[in-house]
């Protein structure tokens, strides 16, 4: 059987002996993500979430390809057989096209759809998967439309009640003139895709690795007396970053973690346990999964952490 980029639900049991309940368990425990394939080009606003503010838009784009969604929506499609999505993670940056860096709406910022606009193309974004919102329509706020109908009815039925009509107009004046509307994209169980790479990361299937024998290389056997070094949650996060982007430099990894810290919880690509609390200049603040005291890591000590993470990854690959 050929190795595919993704598999449908009905293939999982035949190929990998993964039942539907197994899949639900893996998704519930965030070991695997549900993905979907957009077979037609769609318009999006790409950007990122900023804590205590909202969504910052970078560019209007067109995308066709694989996407991921929030875990709640992943669980919805598995338990309720369908879900409707407006916010996505675009998996393949190379499939993002037609960047338009001009702010595309008439409504001033900040608004209900965007907090701000900071023009960027995908090459300016360091994290591997880009968050995007389905491009919406601007239209008159539905409450204003309804209010006008009621106002006309009051005027025709009760012209002798000017105070009531005045109060009604004052209420309408407080409603925003424009609302952003996006119909969303509906997905069903038949649309579910499970990425081959996710199955490998979860340890469900083993990646095929070519083994080369080099005569001059001696196998290094660790001493049985050598104690195992316990790694903390941040080091585990850094190891995952090295696995995802082995070619990055220390500065690249630091920027990647800063970007993760700015992402809203639930939309982070690497920081699945929401360890990162804040990125401030040359410092990263993080908190262990179990809670407790917030810890601070300075960039000056980051290279040592990174070196140990790379050694851990190399040791795992050697085994």
Can you walk me through this structure?
The protein folds into three domains: 6-139 and 180-201, no CATH class; 142-175; 233-318, no CATH class. The chain contains nine helices and 15 strands. Residues 209-227 have low confidence and may be disordered. The chain is an alpha+beta fold. Helices cover 32% and strands 26% of the residues. Strands 1, 2, 3, 5, 6, 7, 8 and 12 form an eight-stranded mixed β-sheet that branches.
Structural class: alpha+beta
Q: Output mean pLDDT.
A: 83
The N- and C-terminal alpha carbons lie at a distance of 27 Å
Query: H/E element string?
Result: EHHEEHEEEEEEHHEEEHHHEEEH
The fraction of residues in strands falls at 25-35%
Tell me about the biggest sheet? Answer: 8 strands, mixed
Number of strands: 15
Poorly predicted regions are 209-227
Number of domains: 3
Q: Categorize the overall geometry.
A: globular
- Nearest-angstrom radius of gyration? 25 Å
Percent of residues in helices comes to 25-40%
**Tally of DSSP helical segments:** 9
């Amino acid at each position: 059987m050929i190795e595919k980029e993704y598999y449908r639900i009905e293939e999982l049991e035949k190929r990998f002996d993964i039942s539907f309940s197994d899949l639900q368990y893996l998704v519930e425990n965030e070991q695997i993500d549900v993905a979907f394939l957009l077979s037609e080009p769609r318009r999006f606003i790409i950007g990122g979430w900023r804590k205590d503010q909202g969504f910052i838009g970078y560019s209007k784009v067109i995308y066709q390809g694989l996407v991921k969604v929030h875990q709640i929506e992943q669980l919805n499609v598995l338990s309720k057989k369908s879900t409707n999505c407006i916010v996505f993670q675009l998996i393949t940056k190379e499939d993002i096209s037609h960047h338009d860096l001009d702010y595309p709406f008439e409504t001033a910022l900040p608004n209900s759809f965007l907090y701000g606009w900071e023009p960027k193309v995908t090459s300016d974004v360091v994290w591997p998967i880009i968050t995007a919102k389905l491009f919406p329509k601007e239209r008159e706020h539905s409450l204003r439309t309804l209010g006008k109908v009621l106002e006309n009815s009051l005027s025709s039925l009760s012209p002798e009640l000017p105070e009531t009509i005045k109060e009604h107009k004052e209420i309408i004046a407080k409603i925003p003139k424009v609302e952003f509307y996006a119909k969303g994209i509906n997905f069903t169980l038949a649309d579910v895709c499970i990425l081959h790479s996710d199955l490998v990361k979860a340890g469900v299937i083993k990646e095929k690795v070519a083994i080369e024998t080099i005569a001059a290389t001696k196998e290094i056997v660790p001493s049985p007396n050598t104690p195992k070094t316990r790694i903390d949650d941040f080091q585990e996060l850094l190891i995952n970053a090295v696995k995802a982007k082995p070619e990055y430099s220390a500065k690249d990894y630091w920027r990647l973690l800063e970007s993760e810290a700015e992402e809203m919880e639930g939309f982070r690509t690497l920081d699945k346990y929401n360890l990162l609390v804040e990125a401030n200049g040359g410092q990263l603040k993080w908190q262990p999964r179990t809670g407790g005291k917030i810890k601070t890591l300075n960039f000056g000590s980051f290279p040592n952490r990174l070196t140990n993470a790379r050694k851990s990854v190399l040791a795992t690959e050697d085994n």
